Amino acid sequence: MGSLSDIRVLEFASPYGAYAGKMFADLGADVIHIEPPEGDPTRSVWPFYKDKPDREGSLKYLYHNTSKRGLVLDITRPEGQEVFLRLVKTADIVIEAFNPGFMESLGLGYESLKKVNPRIVYVSITPFGREGPYADFPASNLTVSALSGWLYLAGTGNNKPALAYGEQAFMMAFLYAASGAMAAFYDAEATGEGQLVEISMQEAVVTACENACQYWDLEKIERRATEEIEAGRNVYECKDGFVSAMFSMGDNRYLWDPFWQWMNDEGRPDLAEIFGSDDFRGRAYRATDEAKKVFREKAEPFIKQFDKIYIYIETQKRRTVCYPVNDPKDVYENEQLNYRNYFKKLYHERLGGEVVYPGEVHYLEKIEWGLKPAPTFGQHTVEILKELGYADEQVNTLKEGGVVIG
Amino acid sequence: MAKPILDGIVVCDFSWVGAGPITTQNLAMMGATVIHIETHKRPEILRVTPPFKDRKPGVERSGYFSPRNANKLGLSLDLAKPEAIAVVKRLLTMSDIVINNFSFGVMDKWGLSYEDCKKIKPDIIYIEMPPQGRTGPHKDFMAFGSLINALVGATFLTGHPDQKPAGTGTNYTDHVPVPGHLTFAIMAALRHRRKTGEGQFIELAQSQAGVNMVSAIPVMDYAVNGRIQQRMGNRHLELAPHNLYNCKGERNWIAIAVYNDQEWESLKKVMGSPEWADDPKFATNEGRKANEDELDAKIEEWTSAKWHRQLMDELVREGVRAGVVHSCRDVTEDYNLVERGFWTYLMHPEAGLALYNHSPMRMSKVPVLSTTPANMIGQHNQQVLHDLLKYTDEEIKEMEEKGVLN
């Protein structure tokens, strides 16, 4: 099996998380997660293992930092900068999410690093880009999601939208950062020359806007959520929660016909007759308020008598689609994910117990994937300094001066 | 002059609709030659789905299809004909990557399974991206992005607490979670191939990309703490205020997120230091969180009388994380995006000028952006068949006559 073990990534802790480094690390790359002496801000993010606030127990920290090594280093101090530059000589990729200009102010910007290592790939993640009118705006996941047009889509009519769970603006930026880093590394290895990869969260999130910007461009419509653009396409209440149905999709009948035929199979020919009518089989009628009203009055009570898994399976049997709206417990217990052994357990010595993790997204036939626990605070500091050739006394001096912790 | 990163890489692209085409567009923007294989007999669903140029339907007029298919070459083949399969097989001899998101068995039926392709091109990188993976009881289940959202918890966790689960209002997993992970995996596989000479099989389960991106931490929280997290509108697990607030006019909202007491003081200042805000119960984040309903109501009373854009200017100037909720119209006109050159218009032979975007992966050596508009079905037959695959004019004519290129 292959591995990315010959790739070294230096990644700075940031309040946005650290998913890009995780993607490399879980495929075996040597990812060094660099924390400031005050610690990775993610370490104090709720929820914690067993609900006990602990520097080693934040689930977000643990999840984002699997399979990495940890170094605590103060890069604002000259001695710390020297350590970092020594590391850069040995590294392939640097990933940082500081404010624009911060690394330059320390003399550690891309232009400086490439003098030390011309092959270095430097990835900068910022909310709105390194340059531009918003470059210095204070930002959060909420405000970036708002300014990218994506948030607007999560609602209908004049209703207030609702923010997607899980800091997706940050997560999207990390995904692009990881892909961009890998691509630039692939190039650097061939050409001997690295480059600057710049990720703006705002731009990353705009790419999640589906067809909405084109709706404005071509039809001058400011679209919102696709929920209930037709009867039969919405989230509906069922016996034990909710289901998400896509019985209707334009003038295609292949999803709709099995739906009313299912009603017949459940002993409701009266409903099958209504929804199997020529009117209901076309998009034009289903998009009317009247059709939606009929659906609400007749079809929703039908759906409501069944459990979400029953609906899911019965509709799939008939080659139409109505999925369970799973809560986190349902996801954890999902039959398919468990069949595939997707969830992994890792024992954490410091916590004295096991933590459950989502597993791999992509199976690569020739590159091994695996999870190791995230580093504890300063866990690999000494090990890394020694690899860089620092003698014991030098390590101690750095420790005593508070330049490193470990 | 530097070459594009994927210069010389040929992608045999059978993918359609969502996540596949966005992935191959990432590759095409980085310079890969992506041969987009389609048939006139059954244009993919996005080609016949709005928005349309001038609201006039047409398979070459969809703005749902276009922004995810820039920079590709269109080859039309009727794969039901053996001569068409022969063309694919010749294309395979010079391909580096094959990607499809057909239902199970389709590629096998055509003699284009991974094993088949490997015989033709031993170092091929072969990608499948089934909704829930290629093994397990639900491996054949049909899905669309918005249903994967429901399956993985994104829908349940997104929405207002007093309303039904809502989700993102889009087919979210299609747009970034799946293509993001897949682009990374493909780059890793290309690098592995260059190092070892080996191609490989890549399987990406779309549902697993969704869990990793959106619901990872709530699932971990359930597994270790037994808690089932709930949707919370635009609020934050730990911070307050953190919400959207009505402003003057319709659908005009401002996002405000306060991360610490200093930012709270800044917000107070912009609000004109009202008396209520000095109540000690709002002095700490803990207090603000505990009195969030009242706090949000008070802030909204203030924002409701303001213009959202003006308010954003005032707030960010004082260091408050704030952003207006842009519609997608606003996004196409957004200062920051426009000034950074994110948007571009490309002239399409049938649809005319249409909106395209820069990749969020901004590379310093060679820009990663849309340069040619979405391919028409079979638009580049001559270029692909004659120039690349070296078929003679007579052979191509014969294919046309036999309907191979339908």
Give structural notes.
The complex is a heterodimer of chains A (406) and B (406). Helices cover 38% and strands 15% of the residues of chain A. Chain A is of the alpha/beta class. Chain A has two domains: 8-208 and 339-405, Rossmann fold, CATH 3.40.50; 233-327, formyl-coa transferase, domain 3 (2-Layer Sandwich). By secondary structure, chain B is of the alpha/beta class. Chain B folds into two domains: 10-213 and 344-402, Crotonobetainyl-coa:carnitine coa-transferase, domain 1 (Rossmann fold, 3-Layer(aba) Sandwich); 242-332, formyl-coa transferase, domain 3, CATH 3.30.1540. Chain B has helices spanning 19-29, 82-93, 106-109, 114-120, 145-151, 172-175, 177-196, 206-225, 261-270, 285-290, 292-303, 308-317, 328-332, 335-339, 381-388, 393-401; strands at 10-13, 33-38, 72-76, 97-100, 125-128, 200-204, 242-246, 253-257, 321-324, 343-348, 352-357, 362-363. At the A-B interface, helix 2, helix 6, helix 7, strand 6 and helix 8 of A face helix 5, helix 7, strand 6, helix 8 and strand 7 of B. Strand 12 of chain A pairs antiparallel with strand 6 (200-204) of chain B, so a sheet runs across the interface.
